[in-house]
Amino acid sequence: MRKYELTCIVQPDLDETAFNGIVEKVSSWITESGGTIDKVDLWGKRRLAYIIHKQRDGNYVLFNLSILPNKTADLERNIRFTEPIMRHMLAVVA
Fold this sequence. Notes:
Blueprint: E1 2-10, H1 16-32, E2 36-52, E3 55-67, H2 72-80, E4 85-92
Antiparallel strand pairs: 1-3, 1-4, 2-3
């Protein structure tokens, strides 16, 4: 298993239950792939560097996780097709 950081920017106009549902959905994809979540850090609403999908702000979420490298493609595909997630980045932690 390799350690990763997954940062997601979620649409800012979601209510709290919808936002928590997105976080739970991503968490379940990680655990269903055989990975473990070490920490979930909710950064809250922040100003974006540039406009994405006509939005100036975004809710940031940071996941520290461990997962097999061959399972990351499925995780990223699921995230890419999730409409409320505007951007994401999966990076290996050295």
